[in-house]
Amino acid sequence: MSQTPLPRILDPHAVPVVGTDAHLPAVPASRLAAAALRQRFAEIGAWQPEHAGDGGLRGHRPATHAAVLVPLVQREDGLHVLLTRRTEHLREHGGQISFPGGRVEAHDDDLAGTALRETHEEVGLPRECVEIIGQMPVYTTVTHFVVTPVVALVQPPFELVLDTFEVAEAFETPLAFLMDPAHHRRHVVSFAGGERQFLSMPWQGRGADGAPREYFIWGATAAMLRNLYRFLAG
After folding, report:
1. N or C terminus of the chain with fewer C-beta within 10 Å?
2. CB contact at 8 A, 227 and 147
3. Is the domain covering 18-233 a CATH 3.40.50.300 domain?
4. Are 220 and 46 in contact (CB under 8 A)?
5. DSSP per-residue codes, the chain
6. Mean of the pLDDT values across residues 44-68?
7. Strand pairing of 139-140 and 167-174?
């Protein structure tokens, strides 16, 4: 039996918010320190993510394996997550907020190598600033990417050099903000044959020009951050 294709969400802002998870506790600040994260990932064991994907593998389209870096930048006021805004013209996920990363290539040593290579290509983050501390379970996107998040601590100072074909902007969001479920909004979109749900975590930051702007973190990026929340809160 053929499966009903999941619809692409072209304007996530327009999809109604059905609630937040403000009833859940935020991850305590003590668990968001670099040393605590190293220890948590060293003791990772077996665990099940809350979100395994936003659609799974459907039909006969082959999967594309990929890895992204979840870069946790060590700032004086705590850890910040380095994220990118993709350029609008890209065929896959154009204009969306994402972790740096991309497809696995045959010459990559492992998934961490993929994440590091792609991150350096996209934003110029020097490898010597990056300390890999662990990996999270794969996340399968509706576009048939099977993505492994590779978590790393990043030590400043560093200077980013963006690949302007792929990356419109790089910015940082406080990890404490993202690890507070009061900022996790739930959306539901209905379509013929069912409904699709997704999370968003809008962050009010400042652009490269210093002007205030909203960074609409949603979809796969938000889901992987939610999985990180569950892991650190557990």
Report:
1. N
2. no
3. no
4. no
5. -PPPPPPP-S-GGGSPEEEE-TTSPPPPGGGGSHHHHHHHHHT--S---S--BSS---TTPPPEEEEEEEEEEEETTEEEEEEEEE-TT-TTTTT-EE-SEEE--TT-SSHHHHHHHHHHHHH---GGGEEEEEE---EE-TTSEEEEEEEEEE-S-------TTTEEEEEEEEHHHHT-GGG-EEEEEEETTEEEEEEE--EEEE-TTS-EEEE--BHHHHHHHHHHHHHHH-
6. 81
7. unpaired
Q: Which residue has the tokens 């997704």?
A: 198
Q: Where are the domains of the chain?
A: 18-233
Calpha distance 39→21 (Å, rounded): 27
Return the DSSP state at 52.
-
- CB distance 136 to 52 below 8 Å: no
Give 53's DSSP letter: B
Asked if residues 152 and 79 have their Cβ atoms less than 8 Å apart, the reply is: no
**Rounded CA separation 70/49 (Å):** 16
Phi, psi of 7 (to 5 degrees): -75, 145
Instruction: Please compute Rg for the chain using Cα positions.
Output: 17
Confidence class of residue 2 from pLDDT cuts 50, 70 and 90? Answer: very low
pLDDT bin (cut points 50, 70, 90) of residue 208 is confident
In angstroms, how far apart are the furthest CA atoms of the chain?
A: 55
Task: Supply 218's token pair.
Answer: 């949603």
Single pTM value for the model: 0.92
Run of H or E residues at 228? helix 219-233
